[in-house]
Design a protein that fits this description.
Elements lengths: L1 E7 L5 E6 L3 H10 L5 E13 L5 E20 L4 E8 L11 E6 L5 E5 L4 H10 L8 E7 L2 E7 L4 E8 L11 H21 L7 E6 L3 H16 L2 H5 L4 E5 L8 H5 L2 H6 L4 H18 L4 E3 L1 H9 L3 E7 L8 H16 L3 E5 L4 H7 L4 E5 L10 H7 L2
Helix pairs in contact: 1-2
Keywords: Cytoplasm, Metal-binding
Family: Belongs to the eukaryotic release factor 1 family. Pelota subfamily.
Main location: cytoplasm
Length: 385
């Protein structure tokens, strides 16, 4: 993401002009947008024209519109973002108050104006515009006959290819059918890696499976790379890392990313940091439950005692439509930061974020134990609705 212009007043009202440069920037933009914001962007509008003879025709014109945002639709697989709203600025093609849907495009700038730019949104812009934060991990999670090729970016886990091949069982005295099917499967996975993994950006390719599937596949991969003289695989061989997983399904990614050997290798990636923070939280919950809280009411009580060392919070909470509820989460983040605590904003498109959402999206590791929070128990359920 490129920040082209930023104009925010002392009262925190103002606007920024941004240019999304890659698919992941659409996810960041989705997290910046809120109902009631105004969005100015280039868009295509179908316009009806009447000729001097009275015949009516229609044409598509590119125009720049400013809409008051009403609905936001994000397609996580295609990384497409559509914003629907009413036109709030004079335009020769679109009447004031008319509805229009803008589909934001890569490499086309847009201007977003808000009545209040809070700290969470400004942090998101900083993160999105940091060139160091890119998709630097790929993973192939596999078992015999099934493989998922996944990219792990700082903000999301993207399934790029799913390979499924039926592998017949070995028969007594003949393994031919089994071996041929296995080779077809390995070949399809190899092609998926070549198609979807950008080795210029990716620092590490995790190959994970139960048993010896990962070992057999990598032997096949580099044997074929030598035979086909595939330089890109041979040059990037050191980036491949074999890890055990309990299955070839995408959900095994969480277990892979929390493997200590993997976390040390990926120590500079945001995704690994999230996984480790969640792992630490669960350990604390098990061994010192008075230093691990979750649920908004409990975490706010801990914050009042200035006890929060690490706050774990899901980005989903900042997309809450109710302004008062959203402000409550922002206040919590600001307060913890002011008290010297660490903030970990989890992406709800990561496996770790999905897990945090099961704990109502907010949890905290405390500096010191706080006992007897049972009176907050009743508030917690009502507060989180």
């Amino acid at each position: 993401m490129k920040l082209l212009h930023k104009d925010i007043e002392k009262d925190n009202a103002g606007q920024v002009t941004l240019m999304p440069e890659e698919a992941e920037d659409m996810w960041h933009t989705y997290n910046l947008l809120q109902v009631g914001d105004s969005l100015r962007a280039s868009t295509i509008r179908k316009v009806q024209t009447e000729s001097s003879t009275g015949s009516v025709g229609s044409s598509r014109v590119r125009t720049t519109l400013t809409v008051c945002v009403e609905t936001i639709d994000f397609d996580s697989q295609a990384c497409q973002l559509r914003v629907k709203g009413t036109n709030i600025q004079e335009n020769q093609y679109v009447k004031m108050g008319a509805y229009h849907t803008i589909e934001l495009e890569l490499n086309r700038k847009f201007t977003l104006a808000k009545k209040i730019w809070d700290s969470v949104v400004l942090d998101r812009i900083e993160q999105a515009c940091d060139p160091a934060q890119k998709a630097d991990v790929a993973a192939v999670v596999m078992q015999e006959g099934l493989a998922n090729v996944v990219l792990v970016t700082p903000a999301m886990t993207l399934l790029r290819a799913k390979v499924e091949v039926t592998i017949p069982r070995k028969r007594k005295g003949s393994c031919t059918q089994h071996d041929k099917a296995l080779e077809r499967f390995y070949e399809a996975v190899m092609q998926a890696i070549l198609r979807h993994v950008n080795f210029d950006v990716v620092k590490c390719v995790l190959v994970a499976s139960p048993g010896f599937v990962k070992d057999q596949f990598t032997s096949y991969l580099f044997r074929e790379a030598v035979r086909q003289d595939c330089k890109i695989l041979l040059e990037n061989r050191p980036k491949f890392m074999l890890v055990h997983s309990s299955s070839g399904h995408k959900y095994s990614l969480k277990e892979i990313l929390s493997d200590p050997t993997v976390t040390s290798r990926l120590s500079d990636t945001k995704a690994a940091g999230e996984v480790k923070a969640l792992e630490d939280f669960y350990k604390m919950l098990q061994h010192e439950p008075d230093r691990a809280f979750y649920g908004l009411a409990h975490v706010e009580k801990a914050n009042e005692a200035m006890a929060i060392d690490i706050l774990l919070i899901s980005d989903e909470l900042f997309r809450h439509q109710d302004v008062a509820t959203r402000s409550r989460y922002v206040r919590l983040v600001d307060s913890v930061r002011d008290d010297g605590g660490t903030i970990r904003v989890f992406s709800s498109l990561h496996v770790s974020g999905e897990q945090l959402n099961q704990l109502s999206g907010v949890a905290a590791i405390l500096r010191f134990p706080i006992a007897d929070l049972s009176e907050a128990e009743d508030d917690s359920s009502s507060d989180e609705d």
